Each structure stands twice: as structure tokens, then as C-alpha cells.
UniProtKB/TrEMBL annotation:
This is Dual-specificity RNA methyltransferase RlmN. InterPro entries: Aldolase_TIM, Methyltransferase_A, RlmN_N, RNA_MTrfase_RlmN, rRNA_lsu_MTrfase_RlmN/Cfr, rSAM, rSAM_sf. Pfam families: Radical_SAM, RlmN_N. Specifically methylates position 2 of adenine 2503 in 23S rRNA and position 2 of adenine 37 in tRNAs. m2A2503 modification seems to play a crucial role in the proofreading step occurring at the peptidyl transferase center and thus would serve to optimize ribosomal fidelity. It comes from Succinivibrio faecicola. It catalyses: adenosine(37) in tRNA + 2 reduced [2Fe-2S]-[ferredoxin] + 2 S-adenosyl-L-methionine = 2-methyladenosine(37) in tRNA + 5'-deoxyadenosine + L-methionine + 2 oxidized [2Fe-2S]-[ferredoxin] + S-adenosyl-L-homocysteine; adenosine(2503) in 23S rRNA + 2 reduced [2Fe-2S]-[ferredoxin] + 2 S-adenosyl-L-methionine = 2-methyladenosine(2503) in 23S rRNA + 5'-deoxyadenosine + L-methionine + 2 oxidized [2Fe-2S]-[ferredoxin] + S-adenosyl-L-homocysteine. Belongs to the radical SAM superfamily. RlmN family. PROSITE patterns: RADICAL_SAM. S-adenosyl-L-methionine binds at residues 167-168, 199, 221-223, 300. GO terms for molecular function: methyltransferase activity.
């Protein structure tokens, strides 16, 4: 028997091609996408606008499935972290950040990360593998099973998706493109391109290759005002130094509608590493000609790192230099720290079978 095709592994275009390949009109893909991603329906029998014969055929040839949630942790501020079972004893994490006017889902794109930033818990795990389309869009689908599917409503239960979980999205480009198509398509999640964000450590060549083709909001994880410090924090900087990265960011933004002409710069503040007033002045100089808004993220401490979060006084002084220079600058408040759901705290991967059994037992107990 040939293996069944999982329709949740296909991009909108691939789904259309699939229907054509079985002698159907490609618009069937729009109907199926709607059922899955707007109504959360995974049983062909419930797809009432598809005739019985075709439903029977689809049942024989296809499945619709996503990785299962095996644990859920809810922080006091409502931030929720889910772990999904992706087989081989590995888990991938996704985080929902509820705010009064939106629900942002932070999704992972890789198991571990090959960039290995010195301060990041995901990087400390090393790199295991890229997540598949199914495993990435499955995070959004599973979150929607908890907070609700859009069912064609204007107000979408998951309103924003940011690729800021585990992994470097631009190093899993093929799958990230397909997932983005599913997030943006009117027939699936139908998110506006301004509400889908790719966060990157600065893979300049890949960014150049997608400029003008893949249009979503862009966040650059800069974290340093010069190459000397950045080489230490973000090792990929040795390959693509700041000048090259900035050139690729500018090129991307110039060709983008989603960014309204400016990039988000992320800057993790590490005590006495990149957080001095001099560093702030240097950053002002570096960013003077780049239209941007700056997110300052006080370091979230974790057991894989000796870096420390700066004092509030140091954070405020750093902030003030940028603010006084006229930048839009936001101090990111930490969400979900107590459940290790904050930026850079995702680990997810549980190779140890015993640890996984314990998690499963906990979930089963409710
Ligand atoms: N790989 C991508 C996206 C995932 S990381 C990237 O690096 O942009 C998402 C954000 O969390 C990045 O800006 C990253 O630098 C930041 N981050 C990682 N570890 C952190 C930590 N321990 N504390 C605060 N922010 C962290
Ligand atoms: Fe990878 Fe981003 Fe973590 Fe760096 S910060 S190791 S790029 S996930």
C-alpha cells in the first residue's frame, strides 16, 4: 500500500496541484484549505460541500493530521506554552502571547539551531533538524484548536504569527515559504502580511534571495553595535558582518509592502557585554540611516548561560540614549518567564525517553 498523503504537509499551490493530478478542479484546494484552517475540520466526511465520491477517494488517499500537543503550561499573565510531539522522543515548543488587542503565536522552525548564539538556550542544544511544513503549520493549527479557528471572521483568534521560537527561519527557507503561504492565503489563516514576522540572525545571502518575493514583516536580531561584539554573540556575523547584513535588510525593506519602510531591530541587553552608554551611542550611529524601530529585550536568564540581565538603571540609560536620538524604542516586557516561555528560553527537545514519559504521565493526569 502506498503511503497516504498528509494534506497538512502541502502549500496552497501544492494542494491545488494535487487535486489537478487526481482529475479534479484546482478550486477544490480552496474548499479543503477552508475546512482545515478556518474551521478546524480534519474529517473528510464533515466537508459537506465536497461530493460523496470525492470524499471517499480522499479518505482512501489522504490524511489530515498535525503533531499532537503533549503538554501545556499557562503562566499567570496568560502566556501559554505548548509542546508538540514530533516523534523520535522530540518535542517542539510554541508560545501564545495574549494581549488585549491581539493574540500572537510564536512558532519554531527548527529543532535546535545551527547559528548557536552564545546567549540562546535553543542554540545551546545544537542543531538537530529542520521542521517540516506539517510540523510548523501544525503549531498554528494546534494553537487554534485551543483558542479558536477564524471561521471566516474578521477578528481572528490568532491574529499574529512570529517566527521567533526555536531555530533560524531563513535556514529552513523552503518550508518557511510554504508555511508563510498557508498563513497568508485567503483560504487558510488569511493573516495580513504585516502580522506575520520572520525574525533572523542575519543570513544576508538568503535575505537577498527572497527580497521582493516573500513579503512579510522582518525583524533583525542585531544585539551589538559593532562586529567585534557581534562576532562573539552571533557567530554567523563572521560570515555576514554587520555592513553586509544591513545592506540586505535595506534591500529587503525597499522591496517590501509589509514593513511600511522600516525594520524591527531586536537587541538583547546583556549585563556589561553590550549594554553600556557607549554601546548605545555606537548603535545610534549605526542605525542612523536605517528606518527602524528598536526592541530592547532584557536578557532572559537560563541555566545554559552565565550572562546576566542588566540592572534597570543600566537598561534605562541605554534606552534613553536611543530615545533622545529620536528612535522609536520599546522595552520588551518579559512574558511567560516562569514557564520558560520567554524569548530564547525554548528548549523543547527531549531526547531522554524517561523525561518524556514523565511529561506524558503529567498530561494524562490532567
Ligand atoms: N533565530 C531567529 C529567531 C528566533 S530567536 C533570531 O535569532 O532572530 C528570537 C529572538 O529571541 C531573537 O532576537 C533572539 O536573539 C532572542 N533571544 C534568544 N535568546 C534570548 C534570551 N535568553 N533572552 C532574550 N532574548 C533572547
Ligand atoms: Fe538560533 Fe536565533 Fe537562538 Fe541565535 S538566537 S541560536 S539564531 S534561535
Amino acid at each position: 500500500m502506498t503511503e497516504k498523503i498528509n494534506l497538512m504537509s502541502l502549500s496552497p499551490k501544492e494542494l491545488g496541484e494535487f487535486f489537478v493530478s487526481i482529475g479534479e478542479k484546482s478550486f477544490r484546494s480552496q474548499q479543503v484549505l477552508r475546512w482545515i484552517y478556518q474551521f478546524g475540520v480534519t474529517e473528510f466526511d464533515e466537508m459537506t460541500n465536497i461530493n460523496k465520491d470525492l470524499r471517499a477517494k480522499l479518505k482512501e488517499m489522504c490524511t489530515i493530521s498535525a503533531p499532537e500537543i503533549v503538554s501545556e503550561q499557562v503562566a499567570s499573565d496568560g502566556t501559554t506554552k505548548w509542546a508538540l510531539d514530533i516523534g523520535d522522543g522530540q518535542l517542539v515548543e510554541t508560545v501564545l502571547i495574549p494581549e488585549p488587542d491581539r493574540n500572537t503565536l510564536c512558532i519554531s522552525t527548527q529543532v535546535g539551531c545551527p547559528v548557536k548564539c552564545s546567549f540562546c538556550r535553543t542554540g545551546a542544544q545544537g542543531f538537530n533538524r529542520n521542521l517540516t511544513v506539517n510540523e510548523i503549520i501544525g503549531q498554528v493549527f494546534r494553537a487554534a484548536t485551543r483558542v479558536g479557528f477564524s471561521q471566516n471572521q474578521e477578528q481572528k483568534p490568532i491574529s499574529n504569527v512570529v517566527m521567533m521560537g526555536m531555530g533560524e527561519p531563513l535556514l529552513n527557507l523552503e518550508n518557511v515559504i510554504k508555511v508563510t503561504e498557508l498563513l497568508l492565503s485567503d483560504y487558510s489563516f488569511a493573516l495580513s502580511k504585516r502580522r506575520v514576522t520572520i525574525s533572523t540572525s542575519g543570513v544576508a545571502n538568503v535575505l537577498n534571495s527572497i527580497a521582493g518575493k516573500l513579503d512579510v514583516a522582518l525583524a533583525l536580531s542585531l544585539h551589538a553595535p559593532n562586529d567585534e561584539i557581534r562576532n562573539e554573540l552571533v557567530p554567523i556575523n563572521k560570515k555576514f558582518p554587520i555592513a553586509k547584513v544591513m545592506e540586505s535588510v535595506r534591500n529587503y525593506i525597499d522591496k517590501s509592502n509589509a514593513n511600511c519602510g522600516r525594520v524591527t531591530i531586536e537587541y538583547v541587553l546583556l549585563d556589561h557585554v553590550n549594554d553600556s552608554v557607549e554601546n548605545a551611542h555606537e548603535l545610534v550611529k549605526l542605525l542612523r540611516t536605517i528606518p527602524c524601530k528598536i526592541n530592547l529585550i532584557p536578557f532572559n536568564e537560563h541555566e545554559c548561560s552565565d550572562y546576566k540581565k542588566p540592572s534597570n538603571t543600566r537598561i534605562d540609560k541605554f534606552y534613553k540614549v536611543l530615545f533622545d536620538a529620536g528612535f522609536t524604542v520599546i522595552k520588551r516586557t518579559t512574558r511567560g518567564d516562569e514557564i520558560s516561555a520567554a524569548c530564547g528560553q525554548l528548549a523543547g527537545q527531549v531526547k531522554d525517553k524517561l523525561a518524556r514519559k514523565k511529561i506524558e504521565a503529567k498530561v494524562n493526569q490532567g
